[in-house]
């Protein structure tokens, strides 16, 4: 994927309307000559669900992401380096896969409760790790 432009697919299903699917491309935004350890991370991964005028509507959402390392950071970790959250000295590199399903419930105006399941394949870009499943419960309140 080096030098390639990421392609994002996004689907929105507003209540009572058939789903729509759009394709968009975003050019990479890098400073000339800058090296970023997680150069293959996509800022807006594909997601299914949502829509309508409310940017936080209630309902079921599905999302996924495939993340990778820049070539220089990958070589650093394969040589035994340790990063902020990656590296145990034995990297067997694979792209990190993430999938998420969550249900957001509008408990009251300005208050959302979200139940969440995240599954990671090759966590920390290491084929010797995972898969890992994480359950979560979030409460968001706006005043």
UniProtKB/TrEMBL annotation:
Region of interest (Disordered), ranges: 1-65
GO BP of this protein: carbohydrate transport
GO molecular-function terms, A-Z: porin activity
Record-linked Pfam families: OprB
GO cellular component: membrane
Family note: Belongs to the OprB family.
Protein name (record): Uncharacterized protein
Species, as recorded: Dankookia rubra
Lineage, broadest ranks: Bacteria, Pseudomonadati, Pseudomonadota, Alphaproteobacteria, Acetobacterales
